[in-house]
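Hello K.,

You asked for the raw outputs rather than the summary table, so here they are, unedited. I folded two proteins back to back in the same session to keep the settings identical. This is the first:
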Amino acid sequence: MAKKLPKVDVVIVGVGWGGGIIASELTKKGINVVGLERGKERTTEDYFMVHDELRYALRYELFQDLSKETITFRGNEKIRALPMRQYGSFLLGDGLGGAGVHWNGQTYRFLPYDFEIRSKTIERYGEKKIPKDMTIQDWGITYDELEPYFDTFEKMSGISGEENPLAGKRSNPYPTPPMKTTPALEKFKKAATNMKLHPYSRPSANLSEAYTNPDGVSRAACQYCAYCERFGCEYGAKADPVVTVIPVAKKTGKFEIRTHSNVRRILYSGNKATGVLYTDVTTGEEIEQPADLVVLTSYVFSNVRLLLMSGIGKPYNSQTGTGVIGKNYAYQVQKGAATGFFENEQFNNFAGAGALGMTLDDYNGDNFDHSNLNFIHGGSIAISQTGQRPIQNNKVPSGTATWGKEFKNQSIKYANRSLSVGGQGASMPFKHHYLDLDPTYKDAFGDPLMRITFDFEEQDRQLSMFLASKCEEIMKEMGADKIDSLKELGPYDITTYQSTHNTGGVIMGADPNTSAVNNYSQMWDMENLFVVGASAFPHNGGYNPTGTVGALAYRAAEGILTYRDKGGILV
């Protein structure tokens, strides 16, 4: 029998960006919060020896142990899903701070078009523009309504950036100036400007200068060491939950973090959550934590899986299109890249930062005419200087031998003579793309694994080739002597890293029949249960998702405070 603890005001499942923001905002109001994190404790001291590419980038020190829990994957419903035994397409964070520790720091706001995508697409092109079985829907909130929460997230994390001429209106400028512009970035900017495009410095959670946020948290400026993605930042220059919101919550004395606590079920009576059941992974003991209010703030797959295992909400049925839990899984279309090789120019490719780059949105959202194109939405196009660490980077022109003297000579020659321009394309949901519980495979506790059913569609192939052609045009204008670019988008390949931008499964909307949560991330079916994170996205945009996740978390925190005062489903 599980050990039952005294009731608390709020229990949070997963202490990353979402959990940290919720804890910070609630504890500042005097609310007692328990945060359950299945991984280990972390502080910046843990990152002091982090510049080890083999240990962190290739042996996945900060990531979930796939031998204990993984996902299963299939390209369509006709084949059996198999477990992901080693990391490839995406990386699942583990431990305090979650993916907020190992992210790059690229912090965009989704476009106004994203939040009203179905209405805006039909308004401009007619309903026939939307392919059969594409299940896009409006989010139940507009960009203008969400803008103040974007602003709050950016001020908390000290985002360094400059105005994007093709984005939604801002109430305030970025709190810190943009990062440095390197010769490679300047080359991209000049070429794009010559082409009448609109480049801007990428919004970055790697601080351009020392900064103190509204909560009084002070952080140092970025050192451009190139160890951001897959690494923690020992300087605290990269905004992550461990150095921003979690310390604020802990300082109140109202926040208790329990690490090594693997939540396995949400407990409820009728249409009210009563707490959670978790296992202390250090002892194997089962523990029941009662609470007045439960908030799921874990990663996409964990949020969906917990709801399905707990029997909360109606599971999605791909045959009928009914149900909502698991619906509208989406990924990212990251294949539209062009790599240029320069015979007579060299660049310092080994310096950089996770969000150091230059971006343009001329081909993102609905910023361009889609009338004669066989896809909707688009993607951002950018040049990144994240820093080419020595093991994982070895670009040579196509046609080069894959081993031997020629390979070695070309590797040395082009080590600092190549640049890449890439497109990050939006991912649209389809009726047959979804998440559910695997009927065969289980985790270390005997619980079913999360199963993904997904593949690229014609929408993705058309979008990918379009972005690739635009990237190639920009690279030509940049003066590359030889260019390799994408010529074809094949089936989705889960074995090759692309991005960790998984979304959907507990989607947001204005209609309980087609969405799981309202625009405060409150479950329609269980009013004292909030589900926060990218699981709420009805589709994925042409950007990294973290900025939008942060905005929705602040919106959810406001909703939780309102619910505690008034009760009921928020409107």
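The second followed immediately with the same parameters:
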Amino acid sequence: MTGAMVRAPAPDARETTEAGRFLAHVRRERGLDFPGYRELHRWSVADLDGFWASVAGFFDVRFATPAERVLGRREMPGADWFPGARLNYAEHALRTTGPATAVTAYSQTRETVELTWDELRGQVARARVGLRRLGVGPGDRVVAYLPNVPETVVAFLATASLGAVWASCAPEFGPRSVVDRFAQVEPSVLLAVAGYRYGSKEIDRRAEIAAIRAGLPTVRHVVHVPYGPGELPGTTRWDDLLAEPGELTFDPVPFAQPLAVLFSSGTTGRPKAIVHGHGGILLEHLKNHGLSWDLRAGDRMLWFTTTAWMMWNALVSGLLVGASIVLVDGDPVHPDLGWQWRLAEATGATLMGASPGWLMACRKAGLRPAELDLSRLRQLGAAGSPLPAEGYRWVQEQFGPGVLLNVGSGGTDVCSGIVQGGPLQPVWEGEIAGPCLGVAATAFGADGREVVGELGELVITQPMPSMPVAFWGDADGSRYRDAYFGTYPGVWRHGDWVQFSEQGSCVVAGRSDATLNRGGVRLGTAEFYRVVEELPEVEDSLVVHLEDAAGGPGELLLFVVLRDGAALDDALRARIGKELRGALSPRHVPDTVLAVPAVPRNRTGKKLELPAKRILLGADPDAVAGRDSLADPAALDAFTALAARRSA
């Protein structure tokens, strides 16, 4: 480990970036001077009170009632942040005013929509009045079956302004998945669209909405957001919800008041209903967006996401730092693979988010985005899965040192990054720059001690404000404790397999519950994919290890999706084995290579090694993964058929 440095921090980063200005703030307010990122990070996790107080001061957090202290109870779980404080997330998202653009929305369903800051504030004020008219107050739940459109942002901020609780699902989810999520929080209001357009295909969701309404008996009102085909009978129209003007006010709420409920993917059991609080998300996203993504007033953030992914919450939080946000709904590669690059050019994006899979597809297709006018682009963010070293080199070849490639990894559980880059950190080929500020991330070995230079469990040893307030409905906290603290009491276990270097950079090797244990040696799945998916014949891949109960080496299965015109013959199997042996080790050579039509992924693009493995071991497919939670509901069929053949 430790790839080549592909980009050093810009020489003027301390003068021109938000992170550099934060260093000056800390020096001025606290008399502390840090020569570089590593020293700053060390302080950020050693002095939690000092660091998070500095974040609140630097970003001018408005406390309606000041906190008694920064951190009361420190133990995990149950750390008590800013006890006694009252504030409101929506107030900070809407404190910018004026005629500049706040939201730009691109869609395959309707024409482009733009809202200025004043228009956004006005619509939120009206939606707040409308929700109160429907009986929504502090603690009530408002849920949305909506795409990534301005109405969704307006409804979320109006909900937050009231101290009510938000949850959303993208409209491509089926009724079962939606009810599995929303029923847990017992909502009183549901917002929905009748349909939408995905690429060139019209999607009608009226039957699905009828089933969802039937499965949510606590819903008193359904609000129809006009989008796509047809009407929804027996609903309140969006225009009627916004019919009455009102003053834009914000109810101050306790720091830990629930802001939103995010749901785990639901691909390995019932989705966890993860509760995030106003203060935790506000402080964490101010820190992340400003100090890692270098966003500020006047910038523009473009990041394709659906409303079911935590990146939607992160996208909306671009408003916190005065940046405008670009919403995208529909097929992200329609009409072609390069459309998002052209959108970045058209919008003047300063931060653009990209999935590693899409970046690698652009590389394979020979796209040259640097030939577009992307002169405003300062950062290219990548998250959701590991980015191979070849992806780093391609971005560097395209953009040179003028664009920072910021690869990160985090998750719904903290609604932010745990490890990622930033303007004060170098970029190392094939590696994530290091832990985020305020995040005491490291790797634990099998004995529960820190390891460097070898794979281990990704853990967080100190509390951070955006750790969940709770799981909804988990009255005694037992599910919450078991999920994160059952392995290492008092230490957060995230569920990723990671290796940190001496310099602090890291490589995430996949989910630890899907890590391969072959002959006593643990192998990360991500390293397989980096090698196999470089082959021109292979479009996608998935690796599964079936352990031997007798203690033998077990069986290593590699599944590949072939490109059009390619065939999985003995020659290609041999070449796959040779590439894995040469690039990794003989232990990485699969026992069997099989072709499948598709790799199972959840709707955020993560490969589902564990559900595939459980099916191959004989589990009922419907018990291990709800089809509605899959990007391609038929993707597990090949594994089900193989399991049947193996057991016959």
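The chain has 21 helices and 32 strands.

Happy to rerun anything if the numbers look odd on your end.

Regards,
P.
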